């Protein structure tokens, strides 16, 4: 049978509509997975480019002179990959004991406890020159521990969390599993001023490690090959530097220098000069340092990050913030769920359906759409100021309760309305009272919808920041009472981003937050299915 033209036209429209619907659905799913996937990948793994004044080449033994080399050691549980000579100087000479921690280098809230040799010696004087420059021995701070031998330093470092020390290279055989060797980055790049001059509104400020490797191999003859000026590249190298472990080979055209005077002369009189030297060879103020960009990769979200207590934006973990978030959710639901469900029961089961109820419903819907920052301002003025509750957990919990109440009331009300009337009538016909009917028939039948409203409420509580910013505070401690200020995951995430403290930690916190919401939703849905079976 031949299909009519109008029928074919209808079929084409249906296919077109179906294709559009499928396309939009696929696009929505793709965007959702792309956003979540991006956050999770950044949360679990760190891959960033960091600019340093030091090259990325590391050495376990730093040469001090023709006779001595030094190895720096730390406690085995410190999560340190490498460190610069300048950072070592900071750890040994920091004037404020409370700020001298490993937090900036390992993310651990552990005080750095450096050890030095008590007795003066040629080796100790050379290390002192490396770490203190021209300062006197008296500049070793009072919290620096004095030891007499390599054995004593290794024993102290191995038994002291946060311990830091150094030993002669020839004593490396004494190192045991309680101590780790810290690879040190001691090489810097200095250039003739012509290299960093501004030309056509551009100036070369840094090179990447790949570009530096190419320079050392002799693959770069002119600075314009690496986005620099039109200038021949002349490479100089301190004679104390040995890159045999890092590179396959070094350009034969490199100029080797073994004195400070020759290095200064090379930099001063050679246009396009690039000198790789050790940090202490030349005063870094004599000539401009050329920074080096290197890619740093590693695990971002670790078990230690989840379990350790917080110590600041860039140190410690988030264990307290996770517990604070769970406490906030529990307290908010304890305050809001009974009130919200009872209000919905009154509006559906007891209230006379008239103008008053319609006004109540309109007000509830309006409150559900008000931005959370408005509730935050109200909570700050009413609970914190007028009632005098202060910034703390109670003020924030009450404010968040007011914010999610409209959502709970509306979702619970719709769930109660969806219960068939014949269930109510059957219960009443069996002799049950109205209250018994509501409690034993209506609420169990409506529980899946009510729990759905609770899921939405939990989602808003977990993701809230504006209210908490005004009412909760931002302390790093675990909540001990209702009046104490604290910090939860969402607020911690907001502050990490807004203050640019650590984007890696922000993504790791976001990943934990996503998993918390996911686990909460899965548990609630399981409970909904169980309630549906029972009802």
Structure characteristics:
535 residues, alpha/beta, D-Maltodextrin-Binding Protein, domain 2, 4 domains, six-stranded mixed beta sheet, four-stranded mixed beta sheet, 51% helix, 14% strand, elongated
Descriptive account of the structure:
By secondary structure, the chain is an alpha/beta fold. It folds into 4 domains: 5-47; 62-185, D-Maltodextrin-Binding Protein, domain 2, CATH 3.40.190.10; 187-299, D-Maltodextrin-Binding Protein, domain 2; 305-534, MetI-like fold (Orthogonal Bundle). 51% of the residues lie in helices and 14% in strands. The protein is built from 17 helices and 17 strands. Strands 2, 3, 5, 6, 7 and 8 form a 6-stranded mixed β-sheet that branches. Strand 2 and strand 3 form a beta hairpin. Helix 1 crosses helix 17, helix 13 (421-429) packs antiparallel against helix 14 and helix 16 (489-498) packs antiparallel against helix 17. The radius of gyration is 33 Å and the shape is elongated. The relative contact order is 0.10. The model has no long low-confidence stretch (mean pLDDT 85).
Task: Give a summary of the structure in a few sentences.
With about 525 residues, the protein is α/β, with parallel strands linked by helices.
How are the SSEs ordered, and which strands pair?
Elements: H1 5-44, E1 45-52, E2 62-63, E3 69-75, E4 83-84, H2 85-93, H3 103-106, E5 113-117, H4 122-132, E6 145-147, H5 150-159, E7 163-168, E8 179-181, E9 184-185, E10 187-191, E11 206-208, H6 209-217, E12 234-238, E13 255-257, H7 260-269, E14 273-278, E15 291-299, H8 303-307, E16 310-312, E17 315-316, H9 319-350, H10 355-368, H11 372-386, H12 393-417, H13 421-429, H14 434-463, H15 466-471, H16 489-498, H17 503-534
Helix pairs in contact: 1-17, 9-12, 9-14, 10-12, 11-12, 12-14, 13-14, 14-17, 16-17
């Amino acid at each position: 049978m031949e299909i009519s033209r109008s029928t074919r036209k209808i079929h084409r429209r249906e296919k077109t509509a179906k294709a559009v619907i499928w396309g939009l659905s696929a696009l929505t799913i793709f965007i959702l997975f792309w956003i979540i996937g991006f956050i999770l990948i950044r949360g679990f793994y760190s891959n960033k480019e960091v600019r340093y004044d030091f090259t990325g080449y590391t050495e376990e033994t730093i040469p001090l002179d023709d006779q001595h080399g030094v190895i720096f050691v730390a406690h085995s549980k410190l999560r340190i990959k490498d460190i610069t000579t300048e950072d070592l100087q900071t750890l040994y000479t920091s004037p404020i004991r409370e700020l001298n921690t490993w937090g900036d280098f390992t993310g651990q809230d552990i005080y750095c406890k450096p050890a030095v040799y008590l007795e003066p010696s040629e080796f100790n004087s050379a290390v002192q020159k490396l770490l203190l420059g021209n300062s006197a021995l008296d500049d070793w701070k009072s919290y620096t521990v004095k030891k007499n031998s390599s054995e004593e330093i290794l024993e102290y470092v191995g038994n002291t969390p946060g311990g830091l020390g150094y030993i002669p290279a020839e004593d490396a055989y004494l190192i045991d599993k309680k101590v780790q060797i810290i690879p040190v980055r001691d090489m810097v790049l200095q250039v003739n001023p012509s290299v960093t001059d501004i030309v056509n509104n551009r100036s070369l400020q840094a090179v990447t490690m790949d570009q530096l490797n190419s320079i050392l191999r002799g693959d770069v003859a002119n600075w314009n090959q690496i986005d620099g000026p039109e200038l021949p590249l002349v490479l100089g190298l301190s004679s104390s530097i040995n890159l045999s472990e890092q590179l396959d080979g070094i350009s034969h055209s490199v100029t080797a220098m073994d004195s400070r005077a020759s290095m200064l002369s090379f930099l001063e009189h050679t246009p396009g000069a690039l000198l790789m030297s050790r940090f202490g060879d030349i005063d870094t103020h004599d000539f401009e340092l050329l920074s080096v960009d290197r890619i740093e990769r590693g695990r971002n979200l670790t078990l230690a990050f989840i379990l350790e207590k917080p110590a600041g934006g860039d140190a410690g973990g988030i264990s307290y913030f996770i517990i604070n978030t769970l406490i906030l959710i529990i307290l908010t639901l304890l305050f809001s769920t009974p009130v919200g469900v009872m209000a919905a029961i009154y509006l559906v089961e007891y209230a006379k359906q008239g103008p008053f109820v319609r006004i109540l419903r309109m007000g509830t819907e309006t409150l559900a759409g008000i931005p959370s920052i408005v509730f935050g301002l109200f909570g700050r003025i009413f609970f914190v100021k007028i009632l005098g509750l202060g910034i703390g957990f109670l003020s924030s919990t009450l404010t968040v309760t007011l914010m999610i109440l409209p959502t709970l009331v509306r979702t619970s009300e719709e769930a109660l309305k969806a219960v068939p009337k014949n269930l109510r009538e059957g219960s009443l016909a069996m002799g049950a009272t109205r209250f018994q009917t509501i409690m034993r028939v209506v609420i169990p039948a409506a529980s899946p919808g009510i729990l759905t409203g609770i899921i939405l409420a939990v989602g808003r509580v977990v993701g809230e920041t504006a209210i908490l910013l005004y009412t909760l505070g931002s302390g790093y401690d675990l909540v001990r009472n209702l009046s104490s200020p604290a910090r939860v995951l969402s607020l911690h995430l907001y502050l990490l981003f807004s203050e640019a403290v650590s984007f890696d930690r922000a993504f790791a916190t976001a990943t934990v937050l996503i998993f918390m919401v996911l686990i909460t939703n899965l548990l609630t849905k399981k409970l909904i299915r169980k309630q549906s079976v029972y009802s």
